[in-house]
Amino acid sequence: MNLATFGFIFAGICLNAVAQLLLKAGTNAVGAIHLTADNWFATGLKLATQLPIIGGLSCYVISVVVWIIGLSRVDVTIAYPLLSLGYIINAVGAWYFLGEAVSMQRILAIGVIIVGVVLLTKS
């Protein structure tokens, strides 16, 4: 995998991770969602007008385009497991931007993911 191909794959992963963080920020602004027959439309409208959610959905759309470009250049058996880098990016982003706790067990799990990604990219 050359640097340009890795760039497309990594950009798709990062955009996907940013999308998740933005969606979570948007839902944090709205609060817990409890859909009922009476409130589904109002709740949907409230969600649809949250800027972080709009940004997150936009990141998803762009990430799909970038991901398709990356997939056209590398085997899916390499590209798809690299998506696990998104777990690392999301954990760090959720801790830094959203103030979520990252326990020792989560840090160990992230370490396992890193080892797996390194082994994968060397194959």
UniProtKB/TrEMBL annotation:
Domain annotation EamA: ranges: 7-121
Membrane spanning residue stretches: 48-71, 78-98, 104-121
Signal peptide: none
Gene3D superfamilies, alphabetized: 1.10.3730.20
Keyword Metal-binding applies: no
Keyword annotations of the record: Cell inner membrane, Cell membrane, Lipid A biosynthesis, Lipid biosynthesis, Lipid metabolism, Lipopolysaccharide biosynthesis, Membrane, Transmembrane, Transmembrane helix
Name this protein carries in UniProt: EamA family transporter
Compartment(s) of residence: Cell membrane
Membrane among keywords: yes
Topology class, membrane: Multi-pass membrane protein
